[in-house]
Amino acid sequence: MKEIILYTDGACSGNPGPGGWGAVLIYKNHEKEFSGGEVETTNNRMELMAVIRGLEAIKEPCKVDIYSDSAYVVNAFLQDWVSKWKLNGFRTTKGMVMNLDLWQKLLSLLDNHEVVWHKVKGHADNAYNNRCDALARGEIDKMKKG
Q1: 9 an active-site residue?
Q2: CB atoms within 10 A of CB 73
């Protein structure tokens, strides 16, 4: 099984507001960058979109190490919130899980891969996380210049 590294980040100017996401896929010595954005969104939606778009770019089942600075995304798996959500019909004590459409899309993509989640410190010394942040912010800048 191929081993791939996926770095992701999302950003938003205002919450909600214009948002962007960035992802870097690494396979052996090859790197591929992806980015996109939405005019009216939230930071958490962009964090999820970064992971979704990165996984969608992988064409076959792989072992994927996902690196993100988003506690919202990473803790859903490392602290097993997702299993609790599934058992409760994606309901929490406050109502339906926020961003349910994206969580369901992400969960369906994860079925294809063997994933290991890694939480990284944002805006620190991780070059790939910083690159993803720059890609995400670049998408926001494009929209603002519009």
Answers
A1: yes
A2: 24
CATH number at residue 52: 3.30.420.10
Q: Does the active-site annotation cover 38?
A: no
Q: Which among 9, 37, 38, 54 is annotated as catalytic?
A: 9
Q: Is 80 a catalytic residue?
A: no
- Choosing from 47, 54, 113, 139, the catalytic residue is 47
Which letter, b or e, does each residue of 106-132 get, where b requires 16 or more Cβ atoms within 10 Å of its Cβ?
Answer: beebbeebebebebbebeeebebbbbb
Any catalytic annotation for residue 30? no
Q: What is the pLDDT of residue 31?
A: 97
Full domain range(s) for residue 61: 3-145
DSSP three-state, residue 39: strand
Q: What pLDDT sits at residue 145?
A: 85
Question: What pLDDT is attached to residue 125?
Answer: 87
Distance separating alpha carbons of residues 25 and 14, to the nearest angstrom: 27
pLDDT above 80: residue 146: no
How many separate domains does the chain show? 1
